[in-house]
TrEMBL record:
Residues 129-180 form the GFO/IDH/MocA-like oxidoreductase domain. The keyword GTP-binding does not apply. SUPFAM superfamilies: Glyceraldehyde-3-phosphate dehydrogenase-like, C-terminal domain, NAD(P)-binding Rossmann-fold domains. Gene3D superfamilies: Dihydrodipicolinate Reductase, domain 2, NAD(P)-binding Rossmann-like Domain. Keywords: NAD, Oxidoreductase. It comes from Cryobacterium zongtaii. One of its GO terms (molecular function) is nucleotide binding. Residues 14-128 form the Gfo/Idh/MocA-like oxidoreductase N-terminal domain. This is Oxidoreductase.
Amino acid sequence: MGQSRTGGDVTPHRLGIAGLGVTSAAYLQTLAASDAVVITAVADLDAARARSVADGLPSARVMTLAELLAADEVDTVLNLTTPASHAEIALGAIAQGKQVYGEKPLAVTLAEGRSILAAATHAGVRVGSAPDTCIPVLVDTHVTGVLEHDSGALSTITMSFDAAATVRSPLEVYGTEGTLAVGDPDTFDAPTGLRRANDGSFHPLDPLAGYVDGTRGIGLVDQIRAPRRTAARANGGLALHVLDVMESLQRAASEGRRVDITTAADRPASVPLTPRAEWLGAVHEGRRV
Ligand SMILES: NC(=O)c1ccc[n+]([C@@H]2O[C@H](COP(=O)([O-])OP(=O)(O)OC[C@H]3O[C@@H](n4cnc5c(N)ncnc54)[C@H](O)[C@@H]3O)[C@@H](O)[C@H]2O)c1
């Protein structure tokens, strides 16, 4: 029990982090500032790396991966290891009755992803995953494709490690009445511009929703804030759908045919415009923990 930044008593959610490489730095920055969570355990194949992270976190103990997965003082396992280990660690955590939140992708194959969701449903625990995603591991470095959505809208996508730069927005939405130019989702709150059919240029739009100053780790905070019995926004079902789209694109290309997507995901509710001080506190949407 501690004092939240807003003054009330809170019981922070206890995290164990597996994998302390490049991506962990941004997570540690977000999570160390939050009253909603306390990092109680860290593990990495490189024990010296784990030790150096724990040295900066008085609340955290260095553990082996097996110890972290079994530890009583861990409520949620944050999985920041490389993709090949995602499924094994998620399944290990779920088997110990722990919640899981992992970096993208949910797993390397759709079959692995399905097994994670099935195990989580059986165990009654939450699974979440960073939703912004790219094609994992050993794959083609330039992928293009056309996605047909349920609504009939079409997305034309280009994903490339081989292009140095582009002058387009990472995401553009075209309609007969206007075009939206959406900023890089990797920066979480990049500005969005709208150019209506009869405008001469794009105009910036004021944000109407979202976690202000959100950064890596905000999906996990959202999962912890989500009322019980409600799906968190960056949930495993959404991550499985993303994995399905990724795998199906590759199948369509290699088999030279259209491939139907077999999974579906509900569009998450938009986030009410939430100031940083609020999401850093241990408050469920609408009620204190
Ligand atoms: N690098 C980026 O810019 C970036 C951005 C967003 C997301 N991601 C995602 O974050 C995840 C991690 O990427 P990264 O760039 O931090 O990788 P990294 O190689 O820098 O770090 C991964 C860490 O996990 C450890 N590890 C691997 N397998 C393990 C296991 N079985 N048990 C314990 N520790 C293990 C490694 O020793 C290493 O320290 C990936 O899923 C990646 O897709 C990376």
